[in-house]
Amino acid sequence: MNLETSPPPAETLGVLETAALLRELTAGLIAVEDFDAALTALVRITRDALARVSWCGFTALRAGEPAGVAASDAPLAGLDDLSYGPDTPAMEAIRRREMVGAENLDAEPRWPDWTPRARELGVHGVISAPVDIDEQVIGAVNLYAGECDVLSSGHQLTAMLLAEHAGLLLAAVRDRERRAALAGEQDATLLADGVIGHAVGVIMTQRGCPADDALQVLRSAASSLSIPLREVAERLVSTVSRPRDN
């Protein structure tokens, strides 16, 4: 880590600011089911919450290959992906499994392909902290400063805590995403069942609702009656198919 630790600027982050950031991240990501959407929320919340941090990005890899990238500000999006090759702060943090950074990119010899472009975009300081998400996905959260010598020891501590907390939140998002995909597959299988598909069609017509909502109506009825879903569907189809007395 090539960051000076003394003396920190007056705006050194405190416990309350870091706690507020982690609380806001939790609130913003607690119900998200899409990984890319979670990354977008994470970088924007982080940018807005941290003093002297001008931009934030995230680099994610799955089995060593790009799995997602997010930037709080579109012009800087390229700094977080692999367009500059593997020689970037994010990739170094991921490889070394430790936080890396520089307070002054104007005098930074590392990352020779990445650093000049970062300076052109107005980035003069960076901290990248590795994020462990799950067995398949790892990444790095990247804090960027628009001035030299403003990333303090407080930012380093916050980046470390942020990386740990983000890993837990993103792992939960990945789990919800997998569960939602599995549920979608199960729903598709159920809708392909003749009688259940017929019953769903009946409810859609009666209520003017989409198939997902109609299937949930069937599930709720099955749960309330404590009978199998297919039996509820059969009863409904039988009822609507029964000839009416004149």
TrEMBL record:
The chain positions of domain ANTAR read: 176-237
Q: Which Gene3D superfamilies match?
A: 3.30.450.40, Winged helix-like DNA-binding domain superfamily/Winged helix DNA-binding domain
UniProt keywords, alphabetically: Transcription, Transcription regulation
Output one GO MF annotation. Answer: RNA binding
Q: Which domain of life is it from?
A: Bacteria
Name used for this protein in its record: ANTAR domain-containing protein
Whose protein is this, by species?
Answer: Micromonospora craniellae
